[in-house]
Amino acid sequence: xxxxxxxxxxxxxxxxxxxxxxxxxxxxxxxxxxxxxxxxxxxxxxxxxxxxxxxxxxxxxxxxxxxxxxxxxxxxxxxxxxxxxxxxxxxxxxxxxxxxxxxxxxxxxxxxxxxxxxxxxxxxxxxxxxxxxxxxxxxxxxxxxxxxxxxxxxxxxxxxxxxxxxxxxxxxxxxxxxxxxxxxxxxxxxxxxxxxxxxxxxxxxxxxxxxxxxxxxxxxxxxxxxxxxxxxxxxxxxxxx
Length: 241
Prior knowledge:
Strand content: 25-35%
Number of domains: 1
Number of strands: 9
């Protein structure tokens, strides 16, 4: 059995076994089901310092949230075509996620699209030959009471009609983006995630935003995505009654 298959079976079987999670020795216990509690749909108030490349692509964005809102049928947001949004954008979806802490990995199970994210905690380096993927490659470590996650190799902005953003306001990112998260408890039922974006292609300098999450008492549920999920509504189908 390969390590990847073993990990998948472990993660899938944990809920059925009624498991009790325990953080690795000396690590903060961040386990549980969490959901975004911070207000807003953007990672940072105002506009971060963009390069010409970033500004051009930001101007092409047609988000369904924020001051430049358009209708869902006009939008070019990735979420409306069921494409993965990457990080930190996935956190802005109003769906919970679960954190499972294992000795050499932290696993996040997301209700959105029912996907999992693996954060490698075994001291490895990033791959020498990057293989860009929708959600990137994540490596983490603990610093006292904080889980630090660095994510690289995410598929960035592709075309005007295939847009992935850092949030729901349309802030773009390139294949060179590095996202660093610092997750810690505010109190027993709240987490803070301080997120730093470094992307020299899209932004003139690094910038940081903060998100918070609240503990939830329910389980992560099934989520089936299809394009324009509200398509049964007439206003979502131009020209149809």
